[in-house]
Request: fold
Amino acid sequence: MPALSTGRTVSGPAPAEAGNGFGEKLTRAVSQLNSQQLAVDEAASRLALGSTADLHSIILDAEKASLSLELAIQVRNKALEAYQEVMRMPL
Reply:
């Protein structure tokens, strides 16, 4: 029986380009979250010492950092739930 050939080759998944992998994106997001938190802490310290009077900007930055942290926690919780569900799947 002759083999069928379509002239197409099937390859595996494309290799991740440098800096575009999931781990790299996750590391970048956590680093950005950390820098937001540190910036808000620094701004709050400056406000407490009286070296700045821009309370409005500091409160907005604090809320942005708080929402970012809340989002990161929710993403972590969803990822953990998905992992636990996969682990409960029968083989």
